[in-house]
Amino acid sequence: MAHGHEDFKRRTEIQVNAPDVDFSELVAVLTNLVTIVANAPGITTAVLSDIAATIVNLYSANPEIDLSGLAAAISGLVDLPIVIPGSEDSEIPVRLESIVNFDRKGAVIFLNGFEGSLGAFELLGGVSPDQIEKTTDSVKNGMYGVRLTPLADPNKFAGLQRFQAAPFNNRVGFELSFTYNRWLTSYNWSITNYNIPQYWRAFVKLVFTAYGDPKDIQISTPGLMVTIDPAHALFDHRRLFHTLKLVVDFDTHKYVRLILDNVIFDLSDYDLNYSYSSTQYPHLHTYFQVQGTSEGLEDMFIDDWILTDNEP
């Protein structure tokens, strides 16, 4: 087994010339791969997927290696879980882009760090483009984030929405990084599964008081907004990004969990909102929008929009 060292691509190439490579060497190789990627945040999941798939294909010719047990072996050695194709939870590569470090679960169906254009999204709020703009002023990862500046009116919003065509499976996750501005009125997240003849919607709202302190975290259930935390503390800073991840189950029509930074809320007792009047083509609709304030123009920033399915 040899590693090239001429450039990064060569360093990630793995050559197997002997049929008697043992399992310990395979563990060492993949552990080294994970370490390389963890220290090279610029590498994409597509590149990692190709590398890992090549490794698996090469070693699949060796019947003495139990690939189904490989994920557990690697997960026990490093902080980044790898799941090998063919196992029950088939997901590869490691989700390095996940912003909730302890919840890298599910298969990525969409990921956008706003490094390119905003063409994958539709602007929300009816405001001019310069109030929804890419910026280098405050970012979570990479070079760009998005600045949202709603008009100075609590009845005005600014945000982005995404339309995702089917298919997607059962439990869906929506992750987003955001900065907290205590003068804005509220932040709003939504995931909706449109499917004839009905749709199912999850909705999360962070509501702030007039004095800028967090008031509560609410979710929408049939006929009722439910407060799941009456006073969740956030840090008001233009350079500090909080993280929210919402997981819902469109098979059972239930919320599953909400993660806000290091706090996990079990939402499995709550039903999703629904309507029986949908005639729209099946698709997944997600959005985030921020509510303005009469105090004047205030902005906030978002980064790393991630959608997943097959969540546990």
Summarize the structure in short.
By secondary structure, the protein is mainly β. The protein has helices at residues 8-11, 23-38, 45-60, 70-77, and strands at 2-3, 14-15, 107-112, 122-124, 132-135, 145-148, 157-165, 171-178, 186-195, 198-208, 214-221, 224-229, 242-249, 254-260, 263-266, 273-275, 283-291, 300-309.
Explain this structure.
Helix 2 (23-38) packs antiparallel against helix 3. The chain is mainly beta and 312 residues long. It contains 4 helices and 18 strands. Strands 3, 5, 6, 8, 13, 14, 15 and 18 form an 8-stranded antiparallel β-sheet that branches. Strands 4, 7, 9, 10, 11, 12, 16 and 17 form an 8-stranded antiparallel β-sheet that branches. A two-stranded antiparallel ribbon has the order 1-2. It folds into 2 domains: 2-96, no CATH class; 111-309, Sandwich (Jelly Rolls), CATH 2.60.120.200. 14% of the residues lie in helices and 37% in strands. The chain has helices at residues 8-11, 23-38, 45-60, 70-77; strands at 2-3, 14-15, 107-112, 122-124, 132-135, 145-148, 157-165, 171-178, 186-195, 198-208, 214-221, 224-229, 242-249, 254-260, 263-266, 273-275, 283-291, 300-309. It starts with a strand and ends with a strand.
